[in-house]
Design goal:
By secondary structure, the protein is α+β, with helices and mostly antiparallel strands. The strands form 9 sheets. The chain has a 4-stranded antiparallel sheet with strand order 5-6-4-11. Strand 16 (589-590) and strand 17 form a beta hairpin. It has 28 helices and 21 strands. The termini are far apart. It is elongated and about 140 Å long.
């Protein structure tokens, strides 16, 4: 037997004790040694089992052949949570020793749960005789206790506030077709609510104790208790929490139950299956055009899941507006393609067919301008005035989206009772509490509290985290540089192959594929593959860093992880787009003095029409590839895993499998499941807003993807996954400031794309200044001659390189070639220096950026100011509800006190009356007859 050291543990006085040991067998199998430990004085539970006490074992019963039952075998106690483990007694003898510790921990853990008031019942598996399912039930007293601990808001009286009629009520005959069937999903009764208090139960609207707490609330409280229950004790040191037991294999799974099959209607009309309703009215693809049943989603899965789908639905609805405008812009581009003068000049055999372009690399050949005819025609679809209008529109659209979302979110906060959900109500994570060994005075309360590390220790952890994040960001940038080198190297090959007249087999594609296009497509595909690989690696690194930083609450943990993952994803997904948009073709020099990367490769040049078409290609490939890959992950993988699991269990028919075992066969959803859903959509939001000036169809693709995404996520939640543990949430958390940051950055990126990536500004400068006198003989403003004006002349004899081999492919009388830039021609006193047109264009670009940014930012500020974050009606209803809730609680408490004091008052009055009568009789007995007559 071998031993290895585990994490250090601390005694109650903060002194480090001897390290615990964990065992490993001869084959090297070992348990995870990272322990969640808790000193007794810090233990957040009560009624803990003392060392040496008798451990009560869970009662084992047989399956009662009721496959859809949600209750214990007695049919009365509801199942609030399920724990699954593998019975060690049925393992092979030679492996039994390594499972004994797990068995002891499990028995101790279950005894702790029963000591805390929970009721347990174990049932053997029907499919696998090695599995055991432990059913957990929370009695009424335990529910009341933890409802108060978790500050759960519960009804005190039906809400009698009449909501204001909606402006859409006049269109009910039309809008009702876009909402779920009200006969199936009935509107929930609204109540005034207040945080539950166990000693004031009479103040709350309790008609039926079995229905007062919803299944989602019961599951949430059960999960909280499981995270606090201890599983091992060593002296004054307690180890606790279901998470550690799951990680070490003590339990194989822990989950709440679905309320039935998704495709079978409930037999009880009064209590319909919510899972069945969600599948038919939400997850079914036939309802793709309908609004989501958000109240039912929130009731079944909790506020955190509900707020995600509310945000996703609202984002998709707003995308519909952007998609319509973007599609109109695209159609305008198709129409303007026929009238694009500069595109026609490129394709004209008498203009573009006679212009010989200089080689774009040291080994490249001379080429004719009209070989890029197809690319120029495609470019004219996206590089036009419609794109400018659409870019400005999208800058306004993103502001309206964020402002209206805040208003909609405020309405949901009111309706879902999360208005006063504060951080103080969220309990610390067990991993945080387990390491609280230092004392600190709370600056707010002035009370001494325990923290896991000192100020210096916190700074060290944060510094290590920042350093690790920076290292991985530099790694991404290194991969981008490698792809750039690939582009430079492979461009030479494509230039030779596609412009070699001797290769007849490539003749059919030469007309449509240019060296620039071939390089862009292959580099984009490679970039996409690299992005996917780095995503997998960095995900684990980000989780490790966040665990190392040890955030206090679950919200803090997710916010910290969110910022790290988004920063990485931002660099990973967008860096190649930023390179094409703002770096490529900007610093290339001229044929006589080219700028070289690494002293060997000439900087990439753009097509004569600019790099906009390459940016469009990059966006289309990444957005399309990302959508396909995500759908494969979200649809095919869960379905395939569940199918294989069912195939392995095909010996037992599904009719005799209990509900808890059917759910065990489904895929688990991790606590970070929604995090990845948010991340996917926020990255898409960046593509839709940051680079929309180059790809007006991005909102259309995003809209189509999201319509599928909503139903795919709904299908996954209702049919392929176990029921997620409900969690409370007030808003979308750290994603809100991230979206606002993207919205601000989008204004600058789109203005710079139009100014520096597209050719719109140079064409406007030519049209208004250089197409007429004194720079031209034309008397009217025109776009004719723009191509000739935008291409400078280079004398081949001025090249410092040996062009003998290259010159052999050129016409015999060729003395000059053209290149994309605004420079003086050879023979000019300032030959090859930037000419006056260059400075006009540069000034116009800078002026355009400044003017557009100021106009758009001013408009955004005005919209943000005039549109309140919380609707006035919602503010009134919140104030009204607070007032009425206060009055109701006060009146109820007063009645309760009066009712309790009434017997005492009656006794007091009766006692006083009795004493008065006695005194009167005694006084009469002492009076003489004369005194009585008087």
């Amino acid at each position: 037997m071998h031993f290895r050291k585990a994490n250090r543990i601390m005694s109650t006085d903060g002194i480090e004790e001897t390290d615990s040991l964990c065992e490993t067998d001869e084959l090297g199998d070992a348990e995870l040694c990272e322990e969640v430990v808790y000193a007794q004085e810090f233990l957040p539970t009560y009624q803990s089992i003392r060392e040496g006490e008798t451990v009560t074992k869970t009662q084992v019963v047989e399956f009662n052949d009721k496959p859809e039952s949600l209750f214990f075998n007695d049919g009365i106690r509801r199942i609030d949570f399920i724990l699954v483990y593998e019975d060690e007694d049925k393992k092979e003898f030679e492996k039994r020793n390594m499972y004994q510790r797990r068995k002891r921990r499990r028995e101790y853990f279950e005894a702790s749960l029963m000591k805390m008031g929970l009721e347990l019942e174990a049932t053997p598996s029907v499919v696998n005789d090695k599995l055991m399912f432990v059913k957990v039930h929370l009695p009424w007293d335990v529910l009341c206790t933890y409802a108060e601990v978790l500050h759960i808001k519960l009804p005190i009286r039906p809400n009698d506030i009449t909501p204001r009629p909606s402006m859409w009520r006049f269109f009910t005959c039309i809008t009702k077709h876009f909402y779920p069937d009200e006969k199936l999903i009935q509107k929930e009764v609204e109540y005034f609510t207040a945080p539950f208090e166990k000693n004031r139960q009479d103040c709350f609207y309790i008609n039926d104790k079995d229905l007062f707490f919803t299944p989602a609330m019961r599951s949430r409280m059960a999960c909280y208790i499981l995270s606090k229950a201890q599983y091992e004790i060593r002296g004054n040191i307690n180890k606790f929490g279901i998470t550690k037991l799951l990680n070490t294999g003590v339990y194989k799974a822990a989950y709440p139950l679905h309320d039935g099959k998704f495709n079978v209607k409930s037999k009880e009309e009064a209590y319909p299956s919510e899972r069945y309703l969600l599948y038919n009215e939400w997850a079914n693809p036939k309802n793709f055009y309908k609004m989501q049943p958000l109240d039912l989603i929130r009731k079944y899965y909790g506020e955190k899941v509900g707020i995600y789908f509310a945000w996703l639905g609202f984002y998709t609805m707003m995308l519909a507006v952007a998609a319509v405008v973007g599609l109109g812009c695209f159609i305008y581009g198709l129409k303007s393609q026929e009238t694009s003068t500069w595109s026609k000049e490129v394709c004209d055999p008498n203009i573009g067919g006679k212009i010989v372009m200089c080689p774009q690399c040291d080994l490249c050949k001379y080429w004719i301008l009209n070989s890029t005819c197809e690319t120029s025609q495609k470019l004219s679809i996206f590089d036009n005035f419609g794109t400018l209008v659409f870019a400005v529109f999208m800058s306004i659209w993103v502001t309206l989206f964020l402002e209206f979302w805040k208003r909609y979110q405020a309405e949901l906060e009111y309706e879902w009772d999360t208005v006063e959900f504060l951080e103080q109500e969220e309990p610390p994570r067990p991993e945080y509490e387990a390491r609280c060994i230092y004392e600190r005075k709370n600056p707010v309360t002035g009370i001494t509290e325990k923290v896991p590390f000192t100020f210096c220790g916190r700074c060290v952890r944060i510094s290590i985290g920042i350093g690790t994040v920076c290292f991985w960001i530099f790694l991404i940038l290194a991969s981008i540089v490698a792809i750039i080198v690939y582009r430079l190297a492979v461009f030479i090959t494509f230039s030779y192959q596609l412009r070699n007249n001797n290769l007849k087999n490539l003749e059919p594609i030469k007309e449509y594929v240019t060296p620039q296009m071939a390089t862009s497509v292959t580099a984009s595909l490679i970039s996409f593959v690299v992005i996917m690989i780095l995503n997998i690696l960095y995900e684990r690194v980000a989780i490790w860093i966040t665990n190392f930083e040890l955030p206090r609450t679950r919200t803090d943990y997710e916010n910290s992880l969110t910022m790290k993952m988004f920063l990485f994803q931002f660099v990973n997904y967008y860096s190649s787009c930023f390179y094409i948009a703002f770096v490529k073709g900007k610093i290339v020099g001229y044929p006589g003095k080219p700028v070289k990367l690494l002293g060997e490769y000439r900087s990439e040049e753009c097509d004569p029409g600019g790099c906009l078409i390459e940016l469009t290609t990059q966006l289309a490939i990444i957005m399309g590839g990302k959508a396909i890959w995500n759908n494969i992950q979200e649809v095919l993988l869960p379905w395939a895993k569940n199918w294989l699991f069912r195939r392995c269990s095909s010996s037992v028919t599904e009719k005799v499998i209990p509900r808890w075992e059917q759910d065990y066969q489904l895929q688990p959803i991790s606590q970070l499941g929604l995090f990845y859903e948010y991340l996917e959509m926020v990255i898409q939001f960046g593509f839709v807003t940051l680079f929309v000036a180059s790809f007006p169809l991005a909102p259309v693709l995003a809209l189509i993807n999201n319509l599928f995404e909503i139903r795919v996520d709904a299908w996954k939640f209702t049919t392929q996954s176990r029921r997620i543990v409900p969690q409370k949430a007030q808003d979308i958390g750290a994603w809100q400031p991230i979206l606002q940051g993207i919205a601000i950055l989008a204004v600058a990126t789109n203005a710079m794309i139009i100014a520096f990536t597209s050719d719109m500004i140079p064409r406007l400068v030519y049209y208004w200044s250089f197409s007429v006198f004194p720079y031209s003989d034309n008397t009217e403003h025109t776009m004719q001659g723009y191509i000739n004006s935008s291409l400078s002349v280079f004398n081949i004899s001025d090249s410092p390189f040996d062009l003998t081999d290259i010159a052999m492919s050129a016409p015999s009388n060729l003395t000059t070639c053209r290149y994309r830039d605004f420079r003086y021609p050879p023979g000019h006193p300032w030959q090859y220096e930037h000419n006056i047109q260059y400075w006009h264009v540069l000034g116009a670009k800078l002026a355009f950026i400044i003017v557009v940014e100021h106009i758009v930012y001013l408009t955004k500020f005005i919209l943000s100011y005039v549109i309140p974050d919380v609707p006035y009606a919602v503010k009134e209803r919140i104030k009204r509800e607070k007032y009425l809730t206060h009055v109701i609680l006060h009146e109820t408490s007063l009645k309760l006190v009066t009712r309790r004091l009434k017997p005492l008052i009656d006794d007091k009055i009766s006692h006083d009356a009795t004493n008065f009568n006695k005194e009167e009789i005694e006084m009469k007995a002492t009076l003489t007859p004369i005194e009585e007559n008087n």
